[in-house]
Amino acid sequence: MANIKSQKKRIITNEKARLRNRAVKSQLKTATRHVKDAVAADNGAEAYAAACAACRLMDKAAAKGVIHKNQAANRKSGIMNLVNGIVTDADRAAYVKPEKKEQKTGSKKAERKAERKAEMKAASEAKAKRREKQLKEEAAAAKRKAKEAEEAAKAEAEAAAEGAEEAAE
């Protein structure tokens, strides 16, 4: 095992790449097998569709560096030679490209940021409601205090008036 930190990291990344490359190569073999099966069944339309899909996968693998671009070209040539023996012009004309898969836009980070913004907005709205409720309660309490103070002043005035009447008697 390596002692140097960068070499340890390199070992980990190489292993990840090896597993990814193995998966892609397996996918290529499966696609090629589908083409050969369709050719063996003498199904021209299916063979042409499978060959187009396999060629696309070969190009992707070459672009990722899983296989060399010349090897991809040779494999594509071999597949198309197999298919050309049974495919008719009608099969080629009837071929419809598969629809593109819908790609996700943005990233998890952007989605999480949007979620946090929404949470913060909801929290601020809830805080505003609580603040509004608190202000209403404070206003009601101030009114009650003012009313109580007014009643107390009236009571004092009455008591003073009664005290003055008693003193006058």
Provide a descriptive summary of the structure in words.
This protein is mainly alpha-helical and 169 residues long. It has two domains: 9-97, Methane Monooxygenase Hydroxylase, Chain G, domain 1, CATH 1.20.58; 120-169. 83% of the residues lie in helices and 0% in strands. The chain is built from five helices and no strands. The chain has helices at residues 5-40, 44-64, 69-84, 89-94, 108-168. Helix 1 packs antiparallel against helix 2 and helix 2 (44-64) packs antiparallel against helix 3 (69-84). It is elongated, with a radius of gyration of 41 Å. The model has no long low-confidence stretch (mean pLDDT 91).
Keywords:
169 residues; mainly alpha; Methane Monooxygenase Hydroxylase, Chain G, domain 1; 2 domains; 83% helix; elongated
Mean pLDDT across every amino acid position: 91
Say how many strands there are. 0
CATH class of the largest domain: Mainly Alpha
User: What is the number of helical segments per DSSP (H or I, 4+ residues)?
Assistant: 5
Q: Which structural class do you get from the secondary structure elements? A: mainly alpha
Overall, the morphology is elongated
Task: Estimate the strand proportion.
Answer: under 5%
Percent helix range: over 70%
Q: CATH architecture of the largest domain, please?
A: Up-down Bundle
What's the story with the biggest beta sheet?
A: none
Enumerate the spans where pLDDT stays under 50 for 5 or more consecutive residues.
none
